[in-house]
Amino acid sequence: MFEEYKSSLLDFYHVKRKSQRLTLNLDQPGREKLRKECVEVFLRKNTQKDKDLIRSIFDPRNQFDDQVRSIERFKLDKFRPLVSFMVEGRSTRDEGLVKLLAWLID
């Protein structure tokens, strides 16, 4: 089930990319660009559901009061599997990162 979801999400990402409906940060993803995109998207849409997702990925120990700060302090190397998934189609077992991509591309 999760494998099908990942495949569908990656297909959707590529459709949006080919139709030029992604931000530059997502069109040419890199670790720093993904972190920047997370902050920008969070500042645009930050419902309770968004806050819960951000907290679960970037601050699971609940160390920060500010979600933007938790994103900014997230180690760039932790984005590496997501970049590989987006660019090369490599599989990732990190469900949180897959959900993060879904959140970023709507």
Overview of the molecule:
With 106 residues, the protein is mainly alpha-helical. It has helices at residues 2-18, 24-27, 31-44, 48-58, 67-72, 80-88, 95-105. Helix 1 (2-18) packs parallel to helix 7 and helix 4 (48-58) runs antiparallel to helix 7 (95-105). The radius of gyration is 13 Å and the shape is globular. The two termini are 20 Å apart. The model has no long low-confidence stretch (mean pLDDT 96).
Main features:
7 helices; about 0% strand; about 110 residues; mainly alpha
Please estimate the helix content. 55-70%
Distance between the termini: 20 Å
- How would a textbook summarize the main sheet? none
Shape: globular
The poorly predicted ranges are none
Helix and strand composition category = mainly alpha
Strand content: under 5%
Number of strands: 0
Overall mean pLDDT: 96
Strand and helix order: HHHHHHH
Rg, Cα atoms, Å: 13 Å
SS element count, helices? 7
